[in-house]
Amino acid sequence: MDPGELEFITQGAEAQLYMTIFLGFKSIVKYRVPKPYRHPDFDKLFRYRRTLIEARIMSHLKILGLNVPAIYFADPDHGLIIMEYIDGHRLSDCLSELSRDDIIRYALSLGRQTSIMHKNTIYHGDLTIANTIIANDKLYIIDFGLAGYSRDLEEYAIDIHLLSRSIEALYPELHDLFMEYFWKGYMEIAGKEFTAKLKDKVRDIRLRGRYVEERLRRKISRERYM
User: Fold this and answer.
1) Looking at the DSSP assignment, which residues form a beta bridge with residue 109?
2) pTM of the predicted model as reported, rounded to 2 decimal places
């Protein structure tokens, strides 16, 4: 690939991703696309704010020592971020291929990194195993497009609930092992008392979700016979 050349990777709900060479480094270009259904002024503000927050949070986490892509360039006015390309495999694609020792090691790592993130009032917003990459024998967290700053315990609990559900959906047989060591890694940083409160909040969110799912199931069942 020549410097400056863009290679399309994927189209998400809010952004397009491209591969390029930037300052000699293989990089990812994230471009938040204008949405014609939004008022132009709101769309510009939304794209500016989300791009600025994402770049700030990733830079903040990098300084804290987390394994996240480095930010090379950000232009919030145009909804553009250029970041480090992490050459590896998504955990969602390879978890079942890992040894038990590696699963434990990466679960501990993700727990510690998530705990540091939350301790610094940052939530990810979409913390799933699809947004983690194994590269250079390390676990990286990617895609901070929905991340933000908050002191609300529920935001942190939602992160962990999403992680748990993503493992259940793809690798139910590995869920308990992974989450056991995730929580151990988390508690190393956050401490026993805070971790216990967070576990209670995660359970609460899970129960609420089951209640909503059951209500929907009953509603659909009734409508079939109406």
Assistant:
1) none
2) 0.90
pLDDT tens track for 83-128 = 999 999 999 999 999 999 999 999 999 999 999 999 999 999 999 9
**pLDDT > 60? residue 1:** no
Cα dihedral 215, 157, 66, 23 sign? positive
Cα distance between residue 126 and residue 150, in whole Å: 15
89-217 folds as Transferase(Phosphotransferase); domain 1 (1.10.510)
The residues annotated with a catalytic role in the active site are 126
Q: What are phi and psi of 8, to 5 degrees?
A: -65, 135
Residue 219 backbone phi and psi in degrees, to 5: -65, -45
Q: State the fold for domain 7-84.
A: Phosphorylase Kinase; domain 1 (3.30.200)
Q: Taking the CB of residue 163, how many other CB atoms lie within 10 A of it?
A: 24
DSSP strand pairing (25-32 vs 15-22): antiparallel
Per DSSP, 126 falls in state: -
Q: How far apart are CA 205 and CA 210, in angstroms?
A: 9
Domain boundaries, the chain: 7-84, 89-217
